[in-house]
Amino acid sequence: MDAKAQGAQGQGGRSKKQGQVDAKGGRRRHGLGRPIAQVEEVEVKDKINLVRLRYEGAVKDGLDDPTKVLLSKVHKAAQLQLGEDRLSVTGHKGFRTARASHGAHEGALYCEVRITRLGRTGHARVGWCTRRAELQAPVGYDTFGFAFRDVDGSKVSNGLREPYMPGGAGFREGDVVGMYIHLPPGGRTLEPQQNEYAKYKGRWMRIEDPEPDPLPLPGSVIAFAVNGVNAGVAFRDFNEGTYYPAASLYTMPEQTDGATVTLNFGPHFAYPPLQPEGCPPPTPVCELAAAASGAAAAAAATGVAGVAGGAGAGMEGDGGEGALQQRDVLMAQELPGDVAAAMAGAAAAAAAVAETGTAMADMAAAL
């Protein structure tokens, strides 16, 4: 290196240009030439929750048919493959989860899961979870899910495995697992009530309102059965929330055909529905869709759009181009009293305005 080049080098091997200070952009990084923003230039904004849409086509494809309970194409791990009827799901390699499109926060529900194929290395977990459960993990990985394992018939929640089924038999390929849940009245839905959508770094994101922490729901029960044989109550007095049927699948990388389970939401089941002692008889999960569509028809008949009720049928809300401009709607069987009163008052006011307008028009015509 000649003397001129050596003179151009600053302390520490940096050039004189790299060592200069930019008055507008702040001090430059060593050797990078990019300004570091000064503290006074950073704008502090309120925190918001951005949730990536797990199914990229949801914005384009729109909402599912609210009159049918199916496996959700939105709330599932992207690596899982749904069948054409969206009642079966197939998974390869690590544990991942898919859940149903409808759930409930109160009442007694029942459905069945047929273990269609596990293969040489496959495993499955079935159970119930809320919308906040991790989908890139098995049911029961966190506090938002409750699962029954095929291995040794144990139960899992919050990542903790405990003995459950007598004899540790579990279930295997070809078995039918019945799933029962009872949620007494008084629990909150804890579903996102007002969702808006935005594009962030080239991906559609859902802006969620912060959710309150769930509280224990006394009297809540989850139980399972294998081929019609009651395995007993697995969980009691767990947290409130809207719970959905869910299934998780796992295989080793060398298994190419994957593992598959098929869900039956009713009304016809392979075995009589499970009813633990002291619990009410269950309703087939498929009836959640009928309740949701009935509430939608009632809301349309009254001319009210976007009413969020609390009866417990929570539908998918991550899709539709119209959803980019409007908020999600949680259907309800009945409108709360305060909402009904407000609707009645608004209708009376509208009728009075219309009557006044008609009278003024008649007066103008007479003149």
UniProtKB/TrEMBL annotation:
Which keywords does the record carry? Nucleus
Enumerate the SUPFAM superfamilies for this protein. Answer: Concanavalin A-like lectins/glucanases (SSF49899)
Instruction: Name one cellular component (GO) term.
Output: Set1C/COMPASS complex
Please state the protein's primary subcellular location: nucleus
Identify the SMART domains for this entry: SPRY
Localization: Nucleus
Transmembrane intervals? none
- Annotated protein name in UniProt: B30.2/SPRY domain-containing protein
